[in-house]
Amino acid sequence: MDAVAHASAVEQGPNLRQRLAARGFDAVTLLVVPAAIFSLLLFVYPFAFGFVLSFEPKAGGDWLANYRRFFSDPFLYETIANTLWLAIPVTLVNLLLAVPIAFRVRLMRNQRLLTTILVLPITLGTVLVAEGLLNYLGPQGWFNRTLMTFGLISQPLKLVHNYWGVFASLVITGFPFTFLLTLSYVTGIDPALEQAAATLGASAWQRFRHVYLPLLMPGLAITFCLSFVQAFSVFPSAVLLGEPAGSTRVISIAAAQAAFEEYDYSMGSAIAMIMGLVQLGIVVAVLASRGLFYRGPASGAKG
Amino acid sequence: MTIALSQFDEVRLDRVSRDFGALNALRDVSLTIRRGEFIALLGPSGCGKSTTLNCIAGLLPVTGGAIWLDKNRVDTLRPEERGFGMVFQNYALFPHLNVRQNIGFGLKMRGRPKAEIDRKVDEALNLVRLQGQENKLPGQLSGGQQQRVAIARAIVIEPPLVLMDEPLSNLDAKLRIEMRAEIRRIHNELGATTIYVTHDQDEALSLADRIVVLRDGVVRQVGAPKELYETPAHFDVADFMGFRNKLKGKVVAIEGDRTILDVEGARISGVARERVSVGSTGYAAIRSDDLEVGEAGPNAIAATVDTIEYRGREFVGTAHSAGGLDFVFRSHVSVEPGSRIHLRTEDKRILVFAEPVQGRQ
């Protein structure tokens, strides 16, 4: 009997558990379950719910009525341009600031102190930064008073409750994030590559242009996407520091007004879907362009 | 041959020092390298050999002294202005550029016309025997091929001086010997001047015209391979050159060119390489190849065999004396572990040194 059972086991080959393990599924895989439930309940379900809701207009009409209304009303569709006009320049400015600073910080011994100082704005939150900027950059704020004391201007500059107020706030809160990501990519490049380029006669600019930049591009593309998505969903600073009825009427304000002032959740959902699509479009375009660049390990030696 | 290295007469290191905080990584290193020479910087890790190379390349600023290329002072120049070719230990190939672009990098940075770059790169590819690989990325090459690319990239810019930082240490044993011959061939074909850093005395002996032995940031001895191998000037150089048997004893007599030590009661006589005086402690250094199993008598010391290994033509064994000295010896016959033997050698094969000074002076 034993011999028969043994023979059949051999014919069947490895059992189910062994076959699953060979594909990378074992008991440890179960640790994914809480995260899967979490994202199902808090992301997939609300997203699907909103998606369906956006096709059921409150005022009746066919299933695309909300979308048609959005794209026929300049007060609504212009929010896309307003938001892009903030988010893209802010993200580019953050990246352009982060790269040279990361190159300098990479060589520093007291990286931690500087990193802590730079990360502080993240922990403060956008509202606190907005309050601070309102006082600092306002008509009676230190900034304008200092400039006037030195006679550099005669009238206070209008720096809040317009485009530039939101811009400044987004740079302050977005920069630390952009910087930390950039720093990790910059320090990931083998310094021997730069030394090799130097001994081959490349000047500092040539070393950056021909060695660092091509190796950094994929990382900078990811950094751009993550920073862009953050800036694109701007809401508190656009309300507090901008002109929420004019130039900084961003798409999240339009969605919030539809949902919580007109109580039209269906329209709010439709605007949120459009917002998501625009973000997705930019992110996909940027990530696709990574294919143009080298994407292997950034080290000069075989692993 | 259109790769023609820049001509010069000599590179001179004049009392070059390099401090890292309180640590003197290099102290007053002076050395003159003539055109066409192959110089090996040899020493254990931390001796300052890579620091020396990095100072010459300009990757580390010197903290004292000067480096001269003929009449021009170069230690104040940036690395990109010196134009020395360097081969790195981990090759440091640009991972995003293919073999052709890697090799042509230096010429491109100099703004040379494309036709000239192509011609010189082709020639460099020929020289390192990598034809047909030029469109691969470094990640697709084997270690030995990567090494060849690194060498081609360094020499194609026609540097007056080629610097190599342990270029073979990442290769396996067989490839290491092959590439060793390749490096010497390329050096000869180009008439290059090469400074080669290594911790492997075999590599230094087989490649170099002159070897510079460094220890604790100080030059201990400079000489031709044969000179260093046969007559090391100091105990630590001897240790590095394969004198694995170190017999501590007391100097009992000096008779002409022979110095006689008392080692655990045995009288060992050899040639003194450092000044020793009667009554002081001395060390007798003997190469394991020169220590053989023999009869009791002068220059023989009693020992007990620990291990014996068959090495093809002969046996290599280890043994210890009653006083705790360890020996490595060779033998034409197998001896049993645990057996009592006498190990002996000729007078002229024994070098006598004074007690070494410990640590950095």
From TrEMBL, chain A:
It is a multi-pass membrane protein. Its main location: membrane. Keywords: Cell membrane, Membrane, Transmembrane, Transmembrane helix, Transport. Coiled coil: none annotated. InterPro entries: MetI-like, MetI-like_sf. It is found in: Cell membrane. Residues 80-288 form the ABC transmembrane type-1 domain. The keyword Transferase does not apply. The chain crosses the membrane at residues 27-55, 75-101, 113-137, 163-186, 211-232, 270-293. The keyword Membrane applies. Belongs to the binding-protein-dependent transport system permease family. CysTW subfamily. This is ABC transporter permease. It comes from Microvirga terrestris.
TrEMBL record, chain B:
It comes from the Bacteria. Keywords: ATP-binding, Nucleotide-binding, Transport. Pfam families: ABC_tran, TOBE_2. Residues 11-241 form the ABC transporter domain. One of its GO terms (molecular function) is ATP binding. PANTHER family: SPERMIDINE/PUTRESCINE IMPORT ATP-BINDING PROTEIN POTA, SPERMIDINE_PUTRESCINE IMPORT ATP-BINDING PROTEIN POTA. Belongs to the ABC transporter superfamily. This is ABC transporter ATP-binding protein. It comes from Microvirga terrestris. The lineage of its organism: Bacteria, Pseudomonadati, Pseudomonadota, Alphaproteobacteria, Hyphomicrobiales.
